[in-house]
Design goal:
The complex is a heterodimer. Chain A is built from 15 helices and no strands. By secondary structure, chain A is mostly helical. Chain A has one domain. Chain B contains four helices and three strands. Chain B starts with a helix and ends in a 6-residue tail after the last helix.
Amino acid sequence: MNNAALKQALHKHYARNQRWGFMWALWTAILWGAWYVPGTALWSEHPYVDISANQQSLRLAATAVMTWIHAITVFLFLLLWNLVLGKVKDYGRTMVRFSKISKWYALASLCGGPLAIFGSYMAMGFVGPVFAAISSLFYPVIGAIIARLWYKEKISKRAAIGMCIIIFGGMVIYGPSLFGEMDASNPNAWLGYVGGIMSAIGWGTEGAVAGRAMDVSDPDVGIHCRFSFEILFWGLLILPFLATFTDLPIKALIVDTFTHSKAMLWIVLAAACHAYCYTAFYKSFSLIGVGRGEAIGNLYAVFALIFIAAFTLQLPQWYFIVGLFLTVLGSFVMFSESAESVAELRDNSDAKVYS
Amino acid sequence: MKLHHKGFLLVTISKSGGIWDQQLIEKVFAEYDESGDFREKTIRIALDELAAAGLIKRIENKLETMNGKAKLLFKYQVSDFGITRMVDTGLLLP
């Protein structure tokens, strides 16, 4: 075979991997954006709608229960995914290698669950879905910085410019709405703002932490391990602690959620979106790196607004179009990196042993 | 217990000075009692991910005709960073 045919085949190979990586990141954005609809709707169902806004501790306890049940349903959707792909045995073999590999998924689950998802549900419940979506927008910057410092992941100038444009686009979409939702008459809104910060830090660090194990394991298996640990943290530690040492009605909240079919319907829909959004998220990291995967995933802001508008029948404002343009522009700036530069994510020339 | 797939791939590549993906796939199939096009593609994706992460490097490539179709094949070797990661994650003793 001549050199030209080989060169072409190589370019096609790298280009295909780059396309797949960005495609997974785009699906992350679509499904993540969709999640805010059932996630917010859940607050309008029993037993959550019965909790008034000023019952802070009870609302937080309810958020914890909601997040745990969400994790269980996500786990089930992931199990279905790995059964179809024939990766359940690989999941078992990865979970048992705890001391060296799956412990990172356990740490990632603390960042992603009790910090990020819990924080998001807090933001949705105490402020609103529009705020919840925007407040997480800074997570890729946190993820990219940690990935750069910790394991020398390359961020080219073009990728960095693209990430900045995407984040600015997200701010433009939500800025004016944000001021509409920051209502002085909602004294508990500060809990929602804290939740927003938690979600940004949680998701940013989750990507970087999971990356410590994901390079030596399968991403489909990795996300499955991460949610397995989240279920254990909530179910064996946090919720039993709250039930034992406080007078919060944890058991009642759990039973009430499982026995209210409408609440379960929203949880199942939210979990379906979230399970496959997360699968796509982790798969994108493995092909195009944490920084790029998270930056494209940031397009969730666009999709969140589209889905919220479709379900609330309230049309978006003009700044949505501006923000949409900026986020799409930013993603194209990132995508236009040469496929070959995406093929090697790490700066191997000065790779060091992890400290 | 057997190693997870990527662990087995890394260990197998590290034991050789360089190994073609086609030979690797045969070893994986033998180890896990697997076969078929879908499993082969899954292994190739795993190798692409390992290469993108810098754990293995492609030291040679060639285009071969197999079953009437041109197929791009790679020869892999573990990188220095890959050795480090294998030691970190208990796949290789220091």
